[in-house]
Amino acid sequence: MNLELASVSYGVDETQILDDVSLTVDAGDVVTVIGPSGAGKTTLLRLAALFERPTEGTVRCDRTDPWALSRDERLALRRRIGMVFQQASLFDAPVARNVDIGRRVRRPWSRRVRDFVDRLAARWLRNSRSVDERTLEALELVGLRDAWDRDAGSLSGGEAQRVSFARALAAEPDLLVLDEPTSDLDPRNMAILERAIDRVRERDHGVLLATHDMHQAERISDRVAFMLEGELVEVGPPERIFENSRDERTARFVRGDLLYDENELPA
To answer: I need a surface site. Which of 37, 149, 168, 267 has the fewest CB within 10 A?
Structure first.
């Protein structure tokens, strides 16, 4: 899927959150969005995932404006996009069921009923629990294939986030949208998810990711986008953004300088 945000703005009541943002994510691209808290990164991702409609401008998926389509047609497009949030949200159920449910809810009801009957038959014939191979493949990508029958409540925070990632992967999305998915993870869990992102790229799927980790953005990105106060300041390959920024605001941010108005600081 090719994603294009063209001159997109978004506001709530009198508050302008995004202002005239244009960004593309092509198949096989990893585009990372960086910027301070409150810059509008999460709102940008929600627009890209079709959770919110822009107040101005256009979001296009494969050159189609989803907000000009019928509800059912837009839902079909949205099902081609997987999103992973900063905090894992799992059901009180085994790992395999948590992963599989994201894929199952995307199917038409007739297919869901047929698959349910097939699973019941398989369990009765084998007298054992069956797990879909695509679910196991997704767990394999995040290093948890052998944990398919564990209860979600027994997982560590890092493992739970990896299961959330596997749930998005199992639905085989054309575009993966990730909102700081590794912000609370230890280096090992972070490395596992970064490897999974690289596998997504190898499958020619696009990835749009927000992160506060500058080293991560430099490691995994094809392009980096810097946001500040709802504005997309600069977009480019990581070597230019981090070593030869065209905008002084970008250079100050990647150096670690604070970007603030001194008049806003307490006396």
So the answer is: 267
Q: What is the mean pLDDT of each run of 10 residues along the chain (267 residues)?
A: 96 94 96 95 96 96 96 92 87 90 62 56 51 88 92 91 92 93 89 92 95 95 97 97 95 82 52
pTM score above 0.90 = no
- Give the start-to-end residue ranges of the domains of the chain: 1-80+175-267, 89-172
Q: Which residues contact 48 (CB under 8 A, 6 or more apart)?
A: 3, 5, 25, 59, 81, 175, 177, 208
Of all helices (H) and strands (E), which one includes residue 82? strand 81-84
Could you give the strand order of the β-sheet that contains 81-84, starting from the edge strand earlier in sequence?
A: 81-84, 175-179, 206-210, 30-34, 223-228, 231-236
Note the CATH architecture for domain 1-80+175-267: 3-Layer(aba) Sandwich (3.40)
